[in-house]
Task: inverse folding
């Protein structure tokens, strides 16, 4: 009786799977038709606003048992696969394979984009500006270690826009070929990852030297060829390089997140839940920064980040980077920025993009 019931349930699943496959291919055919229209009109194939709307709609009608996170992941992969049928999306990221930047790129674009590892943040900006990559993914800040100032400096050198953001949790593990602690003679790590595990290392790996490398993925790549080397890296890197866990979750602070910018040559339209990034320089006189920021307060526009960097043109001159809630197409934002410009030597709109939720 139980075997018959099991068979019936499996038959129902098989039938549903056939229907899912049929509907997916039907969806893909419609997407190809849309691609033909977009190509004729010279429209962009990738539309993050449309993608957000698709996912928001399905989340509103999701009744479970799948969680919203699972549904979001599934539909992002469907959108990614469909987009790959329309046009290959080249995405530059900070390599090698297995970095947190690589992971952020996959989570944002889905696994069907064409991911291109770069050896530096500068190379990502260059690739996007020259049109070699459609998009780039760059780290901008970590909740424990602060702003990635080098990324900010690149915005002063390259004509790119911020078209999106994504925030991912950072979990770090000690990995090696064997997974055996007693075989470890040295540890490789990115400096930021090392700093985030300082206390754990001092308690558990005293006397084992730690060497800095360019990324957590590079640490994993070194560890996969020598069983005496351990790497501080992600589970994602462990899967790619065939490493085993020596110890899991070795970061000192568990509430650890990194925010990444998606950079491109343009920015999307309004979604109703947006963020804007600008940079500006000021005249060197008392109250200059106060005057530039006061219009935001007067308009009740929430600033989510402000950072300064040396302008590197004249000594003691700085560029200010500001993120705030709202889109450049919002009337209140337009009026506010016009007032801010009155106090600036130069103001550059870096991009408006859907706020990560």
Result:
């Amino acid at each position: 009786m139980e075997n018959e019931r099991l068979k019936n349930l499996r038959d129902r699943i098989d039938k549903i799977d056939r229907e899912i496959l049929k509907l997916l291919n039907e969806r893909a055919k419609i997407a190809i038709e849309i691609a033909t229209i977009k190509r004729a009109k010279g429209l962009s194939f990738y539309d993050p606003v449309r993608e957000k709307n698709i996912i928001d709609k399905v989340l509103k009608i999701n009744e479970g048992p799948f969680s919203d996170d699972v549904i979001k992941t599934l539909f992002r992969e469907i959108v990614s696969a469909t987009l790959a049928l329309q046009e290959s999306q080249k995405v530059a990221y900070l390599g090698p394979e297995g970095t947190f930047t690589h992971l952020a790129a996959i989570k944002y674009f889905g696994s069907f984009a064409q991911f291109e590892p770069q050896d530096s943040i500068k190379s990502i900006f260059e690739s996007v500006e020259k049109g070699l990559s459609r998009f780039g993914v760059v780290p901008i800040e970590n909740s424990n270690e602060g702003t990635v100032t080098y990324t900010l400096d690149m915005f002063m050198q390259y004509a790119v826009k911020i078209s999106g953001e994504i925030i991912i949790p950072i979990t770090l593990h000690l990995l090696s070929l064997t997974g055996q602690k007693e075989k470890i003679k040295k540890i490789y790590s990115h400096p930021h990852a090392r700093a985030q595990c300082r206390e754990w290392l001092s308690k558990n790996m005293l006397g084992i030297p730690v060497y800095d490398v360019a990324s957590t993925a590079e640490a994993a790549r070194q560890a996969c060829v020598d069983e005496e080397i351990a790497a501080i890296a992600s589970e994602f890197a462990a899967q790619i390089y065939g490493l085993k866990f020596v110890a899991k979750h070795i970061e000192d602070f568990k509430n650890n997140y990194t925010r990444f910018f998606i950079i491109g040559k343009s920015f999307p339209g309004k979604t109703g839940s947006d963020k804007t990034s600008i940079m500006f320089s000021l005249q060197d006189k008392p109250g200059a920064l106060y005057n530039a920021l006061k219009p935001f307060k007067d308009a009740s526009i929430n600033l989510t980040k402000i950072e300064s960097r040396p302008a590197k043109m004249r000594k003691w001159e700085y560029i200010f980077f500001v993120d705030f809630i709202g889109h450049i197409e919002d009337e209140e934002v337009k009026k506010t920025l016009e007032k801010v410009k009155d106090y600036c030597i130069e103001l550059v709109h870096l991009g408006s993009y859907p706020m990560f939720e």
Q: What stands out?
A: The first helix runs from residue 2 to 41. The longest strand covers residues 344-354. The mean pLDDT is 90. Residues 173-247 form a domain with the D-Maltodextrin-Binding Protein; domain 2 fold (CATH 3.40.190.10).
